[in-house]
Amino acid sequence: MQQKYITLALFGAISFPLSVFADTGTLDEIVVTATRFPEKRDSTSLDVTVISSEDIAKSAETTIPDLLAEHAGIHVMSTGGTPDKSIDMRGLGVTGNQNTLILLDGQPLNDIELTTVRLSAIPLSSVERIEIINGSGAVLFGGGATGGTINIITKRPSKEMLGDVSVGFGSYGAKEWQLALSGTSDRIGMRITASGLDTSNYRVNNNLTQNNMEADLRTDVGNGNAVLKFGADHQDLRYPGVRTVDASIGLNQLATDPRGTSTPLDYGQSDGAHVSLGTTQQMSFGELAGELSYRDSKQQAYYAAYGGSYLNTDLNLLSFTPRTKITYQLGSKSNELVVGLDFANWNYDSQRSTNPVGTLTAHILATQFNRALYAQNTTQFGSDTKLTLGARTQQVDYQASDTVNPAAYASGSQSRNVNAYEIGLRHNLNQELSLFGRLGHSFRIATVDEIYHQYGGPSYDSAISILEPQTSQDSEAGIDYKSGKEKVRAALFRMNLNNEIYYNAITYQNMNLSPTSRYGLELEGTHHYSDVFDLTASYSYTVAKFREGIYGGINVSGNNIPLVPRNRLSLSPSWKMSENNSLSANVNYVGEQYFDNDQTNTFSQKMPAYVTLDMKLLHREGAWLWTATVNNLFNGRYFTYAVASTTTNGRYNAYPMPGRNMMLNASYRF
Known about the structure:
Elements: H1 2-13, E1 31-32, E2 39-40, E3 48-51, H2 53-58, H3 64-68, E4 74-77, E5 86-89, H4 96-99, E6 100-104, E7 107-108, E8 127-134, H5 138-141, E9 148-154, E10 162-170, E11 174-185, E12 188-199, E13 208-221, E14 224-238, E15 243-246, E16 251-252, H6 253-256, E17 267-283, E18 286-303, E19 309-320, E20 323-330, E21 333-353, E22 360-381, E23 385-402, E24 411-428, E25 433-444, H7 448-451, E26 452-453, E27 463-464, E28 470-483, E29 486-498, E30 501-504, E31 509-512, E32 516-528, E33 533-546, E34 550-551, E35 554-555, E36 567-576, E37 581-590, E38 610-621, E39 624-631, E40 639-644, E41 651-656, E42 661-669
Parallel strand pairs: 6-9
Antiparallel strand pairs: 1-2, 3-8, 4-5, 6-7, 8-9, 10-11, 10-42, 11-12, 12-13, 13-14, 14-17, 15-16, 15-41, 17-18, 18-19, 18-20, 19-21, 20-21, 21-22, 22-23, 23-24, 24-25, 25-28, 26-27, 28-29, 29-32, 30-31, 32-33, 33-36, 34-35, 36-37, 37-38, 38-39, 39-42, 40-41
């Protein structure tokens, strides 16, 4: 019945002719980097969605995860009171972060540990566009792209010297600022963006202080350019912990004290830095490009419960990514071939103790070295058909050990060859309607946190258990319709996973699961009713299932995988009230889902569905821009992540989301 209402709501919102959907701007003008080289969006056979700078300005959302959640196939959840929400594409659930590859200007942000990508470290004002490669990216970008790839493209230096400064004040004592400087003189261009945020947040013991900086320097070199990009970020965050509900004893902290804390002493601190030097050169045969990049992150965290736990982790990545694009004719057919090498060297060092000055209880050292060769060829058949064939082969060498534990089972190593391939086809039936389809194979390598078990040894001591690479057979078919500025995208997809890497609450360990699957439907588009009003709509129907498996004597075949909402709907109207005033909103519905840990599907309830409404009012006066935003306008109580007890049916822990909150910003351009 609920699914029926959702479907009716969707088609009630979009019950206008097929030509109602549109991207902002003319589709042919949109440039994407889905092939690791800039090209027009129409030049690729892949299923790519672009969030343009105009889309970002119009949206009622003010963070990258919430902006992404407006689009079909993307679900976000918040755990631990962090501003960095987990992103899940196409129903991977709790491991969505590890199966959604997130890039910043083509460089990966995912780490080899179970941390959420620090999207809060990227000032939204520095973002030019966001490219969503639905269900794809493994051939060109590597592991962790089973659900898809998100590439965040930052702004280039402007031709003229420009500056923008803004300040904001809001609920929970929030204070924020942003500064952007951009310009070009002779042959050198520069753009620097910095931002800061200080807030006590909705929960007790959830204070956040954050500062970020991104810079882009570029100059003409040879027959192309050279680009130096670097950035740094710092975050101090207090952890409020969970709120507990236990029907057996009449406990419901979500109702009686949702803002309270169960962990008043817990905190975390992180520092990150990155730098890359790259070039693109025009050659007689095509283009040559590459980057040499380094990224480092340092994190400390303290959890006071159960005797205390302190973590001090240092992680760094050095990568080199040369590639070339060759255009050639084969008979009467135009071809474009992209060939590249990827080298990535990870170093992980994590010291753990009961408190910041305590004796080490674990010292985990790990390295991962990746070497990959990939090629992707796109052939133009006539004027209406494109065929893309791509393959990747990658060597992964992995070593990990706990130096505090001398036992042999506290260390392990693995060397594996993993592969990816993709076959994509796009055919234009006419100037307005095109069909696309894709078959692919993707993979994921386990993180350090998934192979390290603090109490997994025979003496209840630490152990390293190397897991096999996860693989997935992927398929997709869909349509794109566009007429002038109007467009609709509809896609059906299926993913069959083998050796899925997952924490199994039945066996209390990370493991390679028996076969699982995901399948679903995605619909999205925008209708410009007039020059002053448009409406964006997106709907996702996603099913995630265990295909087979018996764990702890329990047969989970056919069961639903937790933390995957079956239905999601987003409606985003935008109204330009006058030349200087506009109003935008986002209504987001997320259907019910199984609690984390409920692989047996026997818990007494499901996580409830919820609806949120966010709004933004914008007023421009000369060089000034005033913005007022309201999130969760109707002050609804909801949570996006919760974990069920495996011993007490009806008991669960959840992280409540903020109530109604507001922010007022003023910016001045000079």
